What does this fold into?
Amino acid sequence: MIVAEKKPIDEIIGFVRDCKKILVVGCNECVTVCYAGGKKEVEILASALEMAFMKEGKELEVKEVTLERQCDHEYLEEIRNIIDEYDAVISLACGVGVQFMAEKYFRTPIYPGVDTLFMGVTEERGVWAERCQGCGQCMLGKTAGICPVSRCAKRLFNGPCGGSTKGKCEISKELDCAWQLIIDRLKELGRLDDYDELIAIKDWSTERAGGPRRLVREDLQP
Amino acid sequence: MRLTYPDSIRIIRLPCTGKVDVIHMMKAFQRGADGAYVVGCLEGECHFLTGNLRAKKRVVYTKKLLDEIGIGGERLEMYNIAASDGPRFAEVAKEMHERIKALGPNPIKGALQNKKAA
It folds into this structure.
């Protein structure tokens, strides 16, 4: 999932300081699962904003909506009939949803309510960690299912660097060395010979280095 | 026991403090409460095992949020009192009553009253 966390309330108040009527829009997907931008967080933000405005002697009308997704036309269309009634929108979706809404509703200011962090997993309740950087050419088949792009600080492809100590990375004692994990798993799988195979230089043009990416599937196009 | 406690306290009964969510505490203040406190069973004695521990974390979170929006986190508190401990219940009620009295009314009270009058 895409992991996000709520923005400081001060920053959000700053966005809508001069508004009278706003729409707070949540998203039912990733940000709901990581407790940053689902229906519950929409309610809490709306309540906090109303109180913050009242305290300043101002009135703010907040409408709460939570869409199934904010990265698809069909769900974003659900607010087309009401969006013009509002001075601004705070979207609690990831950066993708905020942008797609801004593209679609050109005349309404759309502000982010969360900081989008990474693509990751729920390691345990309340703890999320990065697992993928969307490099466009998955290496996991060669690295025992553990990604050196997202989990090695140096993105090394042929074994650990000198900073790997007792299975931990030199940037933090909490962080596992990705290559230690890869070697341990290769051993477990009885495939340690794979470690001898050199991984060739990676083509980074499929990652962000090649500019913003796009995928076209003609077979699916209308 | 015939104990008394301040009449400013309104009790909302819940099956367990684990049911208390951030939004419930926020709504209390949004509707004009000057203060609120959550009373759970003693730690380690929750019938549902961890309900009161969860409530405690949510109270801490909400206190921070109330601080951030200028309502003041000190208006919210969590207490753990045994169901059989009536004297402590009355004592806590007095304690919170005094604390909130010293803090004064909820900062949005004026705005709420103007809204009602309009």
User: Anything to note?
Assistant: Chain A is about 25% helix and 25% strand.
